[in-house]
């Protein structure tokens, strides 16, 4: 009898996990580059606040499970001014805070252009995540979400207050070891976020991208990686993993141009609904 009850309870648990996994959705946006500075070509700094307001209103109406921004949340003045940069960050975070749910950040190179990681995290915190952590993971409805921080140079030194070359992005050894441990925790399907690209071979690509991909490919848990950084967007599939780059929000005039997306996860596909310039895409899962 006990064995029968256990089998029944296990079946209910597995069924509930399966149903939960079919109903998860999240919002994402990237490269807001908010700063109270003049527009520069296609980068419309003066319109970033309005664009993010539209994005957050959409996310609240859709009642997504969480929203994540994929880096370069803020920008800066020239010459750099630490206090002004913190004011820009505080103002744009105030718009993001209008979302009625969990919020997460991915660090981008412009987020440390004249402030430190610690200063960024003190203003732009992540829901129930230690503010000292710039890479982290969380679970929701049968999925594991992993956030990486590639804002380190090739020596392993962290980007700090503009003391870096933006094209020298790396995942340091300590973080790689942590990533391996995270992927060994369980068999949950994994969605990963990182600002710079894990595919390609140019200035927007993480220098040790191949080493990171090798770790991601080992157990087959990682289904998709979402990036920002390259404002024109893009997509590749490498060894069964999808790599999707969301177009930058900063580009183009509002209201005709904006860019954000809602991602819905199910057992057999990832459905990306793009708004504005963002590309909609359906990604099959094995």
Helix content: 25-40%
CATH class: Alpha Beta
CATH topology: Purple Acid Phosphatase, chain A, domain 2
CATH architecture: 4-Layer Sandwich
Radius of gyration (CA) equals 19 Å
Q: How do the helices and strands follow one another from N- to C-terminus?
A: HEHEHEHEEHEHEEEEEE
Principal-axes shape call: globular
Query: Percent of residues in beta strands?
Result: 15-25%
Derived structural class: alpha/beta
Give the domain tally: 1
**How many alpha or pi helices?**
6
CA distance, first residue to last residue = 37 Å
Largest beta sheet, briefly?
Answer: 6 strands, mixed
Mean pLDDT: 92
Q: In total, how many beta strands?
A: 12
The name of the CATH superfamily reads Metallo-dependent phosphatases
Extract low-pLDDT stretches. 1-21
Description:
The chain is built from six helices and twelve strands. The chain has a single domain, classed as 4-Layer Sandwich (Purple Acid Phosphatase, chain A, domain 2), CATH 3.60.21.10. The longest helix is centred in the N-terminal third of the chain and has 20 residues. It is of the alpha/beta class and 286 residues long.
């Amino acid at each position: 009898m006990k064995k029968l009850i256990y089998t029944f309870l296990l079946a209910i648990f597995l069924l509930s996990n399966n149903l939960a996994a079919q109903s998860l959705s999240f919002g994402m946006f990237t490269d807001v580059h908010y700063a109270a500075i003049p527009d520069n070509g296609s980068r419309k700094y003066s319109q970033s606040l309005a664009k993010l307001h539209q994005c957050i209103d959409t996310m609240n109406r859709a009642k997504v499970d969480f929203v994540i921004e994929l880096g370069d949340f803020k920008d800066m003045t020239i010459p750099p001014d630490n206090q002004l940069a913190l004011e820009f960050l505080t103002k744009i975070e105030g718009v993001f805070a209008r979302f009625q749910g969990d919020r997460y950040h991915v660090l981008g190179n412009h987020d440390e252009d004249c402030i430190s990681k610690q200063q960024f995290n003190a203003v732009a915190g992540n829901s129930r995540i230690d503010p000292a952590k710039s890479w982290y993971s969380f679970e929701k409805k049968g999925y594991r979400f992993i956030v990486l921080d590639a804002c380190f140079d090739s020596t392993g030194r962290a980007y700090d207050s503009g003391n870096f070359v933006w094209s020298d992005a790396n995942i340091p050894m300590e973080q790689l070891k942590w990533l391996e441990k995270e992927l060994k925790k369980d068999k949950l399907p994994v969605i990963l976020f990182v600002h710079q690209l894990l595919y390609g071979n140019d200035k927007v690509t993480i220098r040790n991208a191949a080493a990171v991909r090798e770790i991601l490919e080992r157990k087959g848990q990682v289904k998709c990686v979402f990036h920002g950084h390259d404002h024109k967007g893009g997509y590749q599939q490498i060894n069964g993993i999808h790599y999707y780059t969301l177009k930058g929000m900063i580009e183009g005039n509002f209201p005709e141009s904006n860019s954000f997306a809602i991602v819905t996860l199910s057992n057999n596909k990832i459905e990306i609904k793009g708004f504005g310039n963002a590309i909609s895409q359906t990604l099959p899962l094995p």
